[in-house]
Every structure is written in C-alpha cells, then in structure tokens.
Amino acid sequence: MVYPNKFEGFMIESQDKWSDFSKKEFDPKPFEDYDIDIQVEACGVCGSDVHTITGGWGPCNLPLCVGHEIVGKAIKVGDKVSTVKVGDRVGVGAQIWACLKCKNCKADNENYCPHQVDTYNAPYPDGTLSQGGYSSHVRAHEYFTFPIPENIASEVAAPMLCAGITTYSPLVRAKIGAGKKVAVVGIGGLGHFGVMWANALGAETYAISHTPNKEADAKKMGAKEFICSKDKDWAKPWAFTFDLILNCSDMTSEFNLPEYMSTLAVNGTFHHCGMPDKPLPQLKVPDFVPGGYAMSANHIGSRPEILSMLKLASDKGIKTWVEKIDISEKGCKEAVERVYKNDVHYRFSLVGFDKAFSRQ
User: Fold this and answer.
1) pTM higher than 0.85 for the full model?
2) Which chain positions lie within coiled-coil regions (predicted)?
C-alpha cells in the first residue's frame, strides 16, 4: 500500500461468498479542502454490513469494503478544515458526504439529503465508490467527522456512530424526557442503545422482548420493567401506556403489529429503527384508529444529534456492551457470520488494525 494514493481493506468479491474476505487495495476519492484522512483503529460490525453483503438489501458494488462505525486518528486535514486537527481521535458513521446546500441540509437534516453519500457502497459525485471502515484508512468530509470524548474507548465509541445514533435521534426528535414512557422492542444491538438512551434522557423506560433471558441485562441497561412478548395476552396490561415504541427488532415481519400498537398512548408513535430484509406485516387503516396511532422510521441522525449523543454518553458514563474481535480475513468472517446468526452479545468492534495493516 502506498498511502495516500491507495488505501487497503478487507473486502468481499461476491455476495454468494459474503463472508469470504480478502485484503485488497482500493482508490479513495480525491482529497479536497474539507476532507480528513483517518487511520482506523476500531470499526463496529453493524447489521447493515450483513444486510449489504448477503444481498438482503439487493445487489451491491463489488469488490466492497463495508463498515460504517469507524474510530481512528486524523493524520491529514484539508486546508479548510477547522474542527479537527492532525492527531485528534475522531469517528465517522454511516454517512460520509452530503451537498450541505439543500433545504434539508440547511435544516440539520443532512441525513435526509437527496444527494447524500453513504460511507460504503455509494458513488461520490465524481463517480468514486465509497469504501468502508474494515480498512486501513477512510477519507471523510469534515462535517461527517466527529471528535470522540477522551473518556470513551474507541471500541466503545464505534458502535454509537450508527446503532447509537439510529436509536438516539428518534428519541430526541420526539422530545423524550422526564414524564414520558418509552418501550424498546428488541433488546439486541440497536435495542440496548435504545434502553440506555431513553433512560439517560429521563424517560420511564420499558424493554419488550420475546427472549425471557434478556430481562437481567435490560434492567442493568436502565429498563424499569421487562415485558416478555411470548407470554399469552402480554399486551393487555399495557394498553394505552407508551408515548413512543422504539422498534429495534429484525423480526418485525412476524409481529402482530396491532397488538404492539395497542400498548401506545393516544396519538402515540410506533417507530422503526431497524431495516429488516423482509416487508412489514400487512396493516389496514382501522388498525391505527383505536388510539390515533402513528408509524414512523428514521435514517441515522444529524451532526448536532451525534455530537449531543457523544456528550451524553461521556457525561453519563454510558458504554456500549461490546465484544472485540481482531480484524483479519478470519476475524471479519467470524464477525459477520455471528451477526447473521444473532450470536452476538449486543455489539462487535473490530480492533487490531495496526497489526493487520502496514502504517505509512
């Protein structure tokens, strides 16, 4: 590898062999005035990585390096960069570029920019394909590069940059705080963040899961009560209770959604954080009528929300429940296969980048 003209990453070459990674060089986008080169030291393994490489979300560009929960050291900054200096520890999430000129961008909704570029598997305006963080380096726009608080370890911070913000953003946009009741459905990689954020924001927080053995963990994360959705008539005692349901499950296709919605307070919202491969169960308008329910979803979060999330985590001592895996062909394979099988205790972070890549 000859940095800065070439980066190196663990890439897949076929969705039929989606867990077979090999180390390859790739071309980063041309370096511009607002760009930052980051030497990666940790990268979370997100469900999105698995949805992409397996074809669950459709065909992808190949060869592809995934990973969009990235923390590392800034080693080069563009002439117009003002918020990061060489040597700073910074992070990058699931979005790496936007026009920053449109109506959405100017309203702190750059995560809904029609011209946005995802951190991997997306073309830049010049045609360069974005490649992710299972790599030696990433090149990111300053606006999508975030200082990491000193008291948050890199492997802990990394999963916050996608899973964390995906659950934090809908909570703050719904003005969740003291006096509100929030239920988090699905206590996994996304849901464990949902419980911790809702509790930290002051809401009365409940965990809903079909897995009874998640109860102890959920209560350690801050849930006041644990509700097992495998129990018969589980929803009846909770009718008209929750201001917001944060659905973090990957199994929504199997839900009786009207049953879940029946636990919402009048005008409450059932909000989807995850993006499963399978479609939602069929619903009819009358299913929304009993409480004037709403349904919504989100795409990650904005820069101000990410900065406030990291500050909250720093101030409150919130830590990702994470297992570390050394990055390598074998390590990447193990990580994505275990995520695919749901064999993960909340989140993985790939580490050991200095050993895997030559540093120039």
Assistant:
1) yes
2) none
